[in-house]
Amino acid sequence: MPAHDAGTELPSSDSQPAPTEKRSSRFGNGAIVFAVFLGILSGLGTFTFGYGKGASYLSNNPQSCVNCHAMQDHMDSWQQSSHHHVAVCNDCHLPHDFVGKWVTKADNGFFHSLAFTFGGYKDPIQIKPRNRRVTQGTCISCHGDLVHPLLPAVNGQDMLKCVHCHTDVGHAGR
Amino acid sequence: MTTSSNKRSFGWLALLTGLVAATTIGIVALLINIFERKQEARTPFAKVVVVNEISTDPKPWGLNFPQQYEDYLKTVDDDYTDFGGNHALPPSKLEEHPWLKRLFAGYAFSIDYREARGHAHMLADQEVTKRVTDVQQAGACLHCHASIIPTYRRIGMEQLGQDVTAKTLGESYNHDAVMAGFKAVSQRTYEEVHAELEKTPDHFQSGESDDPHAHMGSAHPVSCIDCHDPDTMAIRVTRPGFILGINKLAHSDDPVPHLPSIKKWRDEGAKGMYDPNLHATRQELRSFVCGQCHVEYYCANKMTLTFPWSNGLKVEDLEAEWDNTEFPADEEGTAGGKFYDYVHKETGTKVYKAQHPEFELWSQGIHASAGVSCADCHMPYEKTGATKTSSHWVRSPMLNINKACQTCHNVPEQELKERVDVIQNRTRSLIDRSAAGVTEMFDAIMAVQKNGATEDELQPIRDLQRKAMWRLDYIASENSKGFHASQESARILAESIDYSRQAIAKCYQLGTKPDSAPAKPKADASTDSDAADE
Questions:
Q1: Alpha-carbon distance B20 to nearest alpha carbon in chain A (angstroms)
Q2: Lower CB count within 10 Å: N or C terminus of chain B?
Q3: Which GO terms describe its biological process (chain A) (predicted)?
């Protein structure tokens, strides 16, 4: 907890005003304490960011997805999958446009961290509808030419998700 | 005023300092959490005690494997499901389903028959059921209800003239001695064999036990050693009944596509004995360990405990084996006569009693053909931290749908539960129909007997009766209410109904109408007629 302020107790307000040097020195002491705290915070923050491999999450490297052991099975089975030569995690699980990609990354980054920190998540884990739409979109993004005749006439209309049948193309582990 | 502005700016400074401090606390908490999660991913294992082949007490094993042991202990309080579960003393099925009383008339099951509870209760519940306390039962029952292998080994070693000390008993599984002991006690009484259990040394026995959970002496219900090798922890089978039974199955011509190692063993020339501990895959063993007990068998005192698998695993294969079995002659040389389980009291027909043929029914189902083992659903993998273990809290998959089903079935939990409910409710209504057929058949047979039908006239009717009862009991006493193989269950119950009606038609041909049948309780869809423990 923060240390007690080094300043002495203030006399009551009807006594003589304290001299300015004393005031500024007290403020100065406070500022020093604050600076020390701020330094500790930024130091700890930087260390934690490094220790938690924070920067890796800005990359496309699948290795960053297994920083957390929750994803180990998915990683292991992706390495055995039909797509591992052509797609990494982000190729299927993030939209292929700049804004969508970073919004989805932030969204999943936050909620994955929350789940992994506090536990109690489903195991086998389950994809949420938003992310299900993302994977469907990325299938189409690559395979659109081939499956064009299968797509709905109007954008957003209902269609069967590719992975409903092609369930293990990305990873068999859940 | 400068003082007040100074004060205010100092106040701000103090507040900011507080905020920064609070954030720092949060960061430290996160840091430590990340550290903990990283530690989780390491899986240290320390062997703190040595267990050996006589360590029937699960406690010392639990020191080495705390997670599995904790799960195992949870089997004392499984939740109640619609078809099986846990109560201090589960409700009697005989009250709920009066037809069971008529089906088992003349057999101990007509006195006391309740829902099964978890593994941890299996010995205690057997010790108090009226089927054991009021009727003389055979010691063969303990083949499954107790951790009995060391006792078989001790008695076998004595018979084979080997030196029996706690040390020699604990050295190895000693197949020959276990088999000899198994055969020696198979036909002795329940009480005698139970007493033998307490004469077998346990590696960790302190002498006098003040443990409230201890059964008498060192008798334990099924425990670690029954499925695991104490040296390597490898999964294995130990029960003589199963070892003999699966060998018979391997020597049969039943295709068993769901057991690839048997096919491989046959293709390699079917040499010697099929030894599951040698030939089976690990995935097969994840079902075999359950198949040591969750099967149909003969378990009384006229012959050694027998699994009827010499023709295959289908209901008619088992039936054919019983049809062709003769009891061995007794000491005086009197022929044992044709095999039967009990004489049905109302009609005097010798009939078969089906025990809980879960392994056999599962073998006919879609999960078996997909290579899904018993353990995959009843002991699904779970993660504690990053350590993946098979959950040793053996229980209904319906209490654990996420882990048990959703590893393969990518559909909502509710939908899976509803699918199972549909299968089980359909099976239950078919069971009720078969039960109605069987009880009406009893009435018809009793009527022709009253009118003086001869034994020759009755013979074909009795055969139909035995077939009908066997099929109804097979599915009613099986613990999945049809789920393990839903179409097969429906087929078997349909055959039961057909045989009952054929028998009734034959009674009518003898020119007798039954007395106006007693009012039967209407089949009530809100009760279950599921069978349970032996």
A1: 6
A2: N
A3: anaerobic respiration; electron transport chain
8 Å CB contact between B54 and B200: yes
In a domain, B379, yes or no: no
Shared-domain flag, residues A77 and A52: no
Q: Is residue B153 in a domain?
A: yes
Distance from C-alpha of A151 to C-alpha of A162, rounded to nearest angstrom: 11
Q: Which residue, among A9, A53, A56, A68, would best test binding to B if mutated, counting the most B CBs under 10 Å from its CB?
A: A68
| Contact between chains at B14 and A30 (C-beta distance less than 8 A) | yes
- Which positions ≥6 away from A163 have C-beta within 8 Å? A135, A136, A139, A169, A170
Amino acid letter, residue B414: Q
In a domain, B20, yes or no: no
CB under 8 Å to B201, separation ≥6 — which residues? B54, B166, B169, B218
* Boundary (domain end) residue, out of A8, A40, A58: A58
Q: What's the mean per-residue pLDDT of chain B?
A: 86
In a domain, B371, yes or no: no
The verdict on a CB contact (< 8 Å) between A5 and B14 is yes
How far from the centroid of its chain's Cα atoms is residue B361's Cα?
Answer: 12
Looking at the DSSP assignment, which residues form a beta bridge with residue B382?
B389
Helix B240-251 / helix B282-291 crossing angle, nearest 10 deg:
120
- Which residues of chain A have a CB within 8 Å of the CB of B10? 26-27, 30
Owning domain of residue A71: 61-169
Question: Mutual orientation of helices B190-197 and B149-159 as an angle, nearest 10°?
Answer: 90
Q: Report which of B233, B250, B305 is spatially closest to residue B65, judged by C-alpha positions.
A: B233
Can you give the pLDDT at residue A7? 44
Q: Is A123 on the interface with B (CB under 8 A)?
A: yes
Domain range for B97 is: 58-205+214-366
Q: Is the separation of the CB atoms in B156 and B177 below 8 Å? A: yes
A124 & A67 share domain: yes
Q: Give chain A's residues under pLDDT 50.
A: 1-15
B233-248 pLDDT per residue, tens: 899 999 999 999 999 9
